[in-house]
Amino acid sequence: GAGVSQSPSNKVTEKGKDVELRCDPISGHTALYWYRQSLGQGLEFLIYFQGNSAPDKSGLPSDRFSAERTGGSVSTLTIQRTQQEDSAVYLCASSLDRVATNEKLFFGSGTQLSVL
Amino acid sequence: KQEVTQIPAALSVPEGENLVLNCSFTDSAIYNLQWFRQDPGKGLTSLLLIQSSQREQTSGRLNASLDKSSGRSTLYIAASQPGDSATYLCAVVGGAQKLVFGQGTRLTINP
Question: Are A56 and B97 in contact (CB < 8 Å)?
Fold first, then answer.
């Protein structure tokens, strides 16, 4: 596709349920990021994948959060036993190479997660 | 720990004015600084990327400057238009290979 695609665009779930959020990066992009944007807050880094290297999971807020990237392409962010404080917009972004090599980051439109 | 601050948090100006958005960061050891635009309910769109060795970048009516030693960047928008209304975010890239974002400036251009 032409850009970063995220699905679903909106997800409403009940507290305690598990959810999966999907990200399709731009074809050929080796770097993939997940960020979270809560109402009135800035973007919070969650996890970073670069090629075949071990992901940087330093931003995941708890062990209820996990993510994987299969075949160096599609990524899934999983939140187990969702809590109301998990409600936020989850944004995925990809770049051709590491952002430190001055590659621009391209964002998807995000998944709005609402936990009731 | 890198911290990024954007001032003002919100700005409202009449159409046609030139304006400046400010971004400051605490750790000058950065690879680059990026400015993004976010429209309501949408993701972020990259506007300009300034490498650490550069002083400024221009794209159309937008000009971004970088003073790495003082930890400051500005985004200058010339001849503002209602379509420029959005939230503008700056972000810096350091050794951890991830962007650290400011809270953004919500810009409204009044016709």
Answer: yes
Each residue's pLDDT, cut to its tens digit, for chain A (116 residues) gives: 579 999 999 999 999 999 999 999 999 999 999 999 998 778 999 999 998 889 999 999 999 999 999 887 999 999 999 999 999 999 999 999 877 778 889 999 999 999 99
Radius of gyration of chain A (CA): 13
**Which tokens belong to A94?**
């990809």
Cβ A91–B89 below 8 Å, yes or no?
A: no
Task: Verify whether the Cβ–Cβ distance B44 to A48 is below 8 Å.
Answer: no
Residues of chain A neighbouring B23 (CB-CB closer than 8 A): none
